[in-house]
Every structure is written in structure tokens, then in C-alpha cells.
Specification:
The protein is α+β, with helices and mostly antiparallel strands. It has nine helices and four strands. It folds into two domains: 2-73, Glutaredoxin; 84-215, Glutathione S-transferase Yfyf (Class Pi), Chain A, domain 2, CATH 1.20.1050. Strands 2-1-3-4 form a four-stranded mixed sheet, with helices on one face. Helix 1 packs antiparallel against helix 7 (155-175). The model has no long low-confidence stretch (mean pLDDT 97).
Length: 216
């Protein structure tokens, strides 16, 4: 039995969770795991991050690695195209979404979501500049036809659905406007994929986890 470990507020956990649901896999979700640098936790996920996947008596860390493993091990319900170029284009979209968009926006999470001290004005300007570059790259590659990589649901949709809403939230709070409004396809796209059962299940679990956190 596959076991996905992490927590439902984590967008990277939810990315893998959605992929596993879309692939119709039998798995257990342990949503009680938090990042840690404790030795026992590092033995399971060497950077101390989540998600990680328990499989065949071992573990795999890093969301992209987990998703690639699932594609190799369970090819019967693919979330990557067969064509090598199309597969690479999906991976390119994921890299843009995560390295050049979400991870840039993440620099502001501490200040905006966790009550940490504000970053400097210079650092905030760098976020704004780098985010503009990342969104420009995303706009040049995203197809929304109807899915982000084309006509079929792919791993890029599993990533986009959990990362893009955070970009909207960050840019509204930090800069006073939703930077994704420059891509008018985004809102109807997110509404479309959000109606799929796997995406709905992940969203409901995230909302319940956020509500539970707010009560503490």
C-alpha cells in the first residue's frame, strides 16, 4: 500500500494527492506529518520536507520525484503525454510554475501568512520583479485548451491548481492587485479543474485543515 505523508495545507502535498486520486490509486494519506529536522524524520525525507511517499519498505521525497515515480509505476492512467516533446513541455510548465512563480511568491509567505517580520523593501521589490518574469514565462507556455498544457489533464494541472490560488492571494495582499488578472484564462480554468472530484476532495480537505488550524 502506498502511503502519502504530509499535511493538507501544503500545496506540494496536495499536488501529489490530486495526482494519486486522478490516477485512481489505492493509497493511504497521512496528513499529520510536518516538516522537521529531527533525525528520525530525516531518515524518511532527507531534507526534512513534505510530502514524502512510503513505498515498498522505503520512502521517496520531493513532489516531482514522487509524481514521476507514480507515472513509471502506474502507467495505465497517465498524467503525462506519450509524445516525448509533449512530456517535456508538461515538465517545463511545472518548472515555471514552481521555480519561477510559486517559489518566488513563497518569499512573502512568512510575512503574509505566519506573522513573521516583513522583508525589506528591496527584497519585496525583487519578489515583484522576479514574479513578473515568471508569470511572463507562464503566459508564453500555458495553453488553457482547456487544460494548462493542452487537451488532456496532466501533472501540470495538479501543480497549477494548488499553486496559482496562492499567487493570487500573495499579490493581492502584498501588492494590492491580483497579478494573474493579466491572464484572463486563469479564473475559468481554475473553476473548471476545481469541479473534478479529485480536485474537490483536495480542496475540501485543505479547507477543513485550515479551519482546524485557525481554532488552535
Amino acid at each position: 500500500m502506498l502511503k502519502l505523508c504530509g499535511f493538507h495545507v501544503s500545496n506540494y502535498f496536495n499536488k501529489v494527492y490530486i495526482a494519486m486520486l486522478e490516477k485512481g490509486l489505492a493509497f493511504e494519506a497521512d496528513a499529520s506529518c510536518r516538516p522537521s529536522q529531527e533525525e528520525a524524520f530525516l531518515a524518511r525525507t532527507p531534507m526534512g520536507k513534505v510530502p514524502y511517499l512510503e513505498v515498498d519498505g522505503g520512502t521517496l521525497a520531493e513532489s516531482d520525484v514522487i509524481c514521476e515515480y507514480l507515472e513509471d509505476a502506474y502507467p495505465q492512467m497517465p498524467l503525462l503525454p506519450r509524445d516525448p516533446l509533449a512530456r517535456a513541455q508538461v515538465r517545463e510548465l511545472i518548472t515555471i510554475l514552481e521555480m519561477h512563480v510559486e517559489l518566488v511568491a513563497r518569499r512573502l509567505y512568512g510575512e503574509l501568512f505566519f506573522g513573521r517580520p516583513p522583508i525589506s523593501a528591496e527584497a519585496k521589490q525583487a519578489v515583484e520583479r522576479d514574479l513578473a518574469k515568471g508569470l511572463r514565462a507562464l503566459k508564453s507556455r500555458a495553453k488553457f485548451a482547456p487544460y494548462i498544457a493542452g487537451g488532456e489533464l496532466t501533472l501540470a494541472d495538479c501543480a497549477a491548481a494548488v499553486h496559482l490560488p496562492l499567487v493570487t492571494l500573495v499579490t493581492r495582499r502584498a501588492f494590492g492587485s491580483d497579478y494573474l488578472e493579466a491572464m484572463p484564462q486563469v479564473k475559468p480554468y481554475l473553476e473548471m479543474v476545481g469541479k473534478r472530484p479529485a480536485f474537490l476532495k483536495a480542496a475540501d480537505a485543505r479547507k477543513a485543515a485550515q479551519a482546524a488550524m485557525a481554532k488552535k
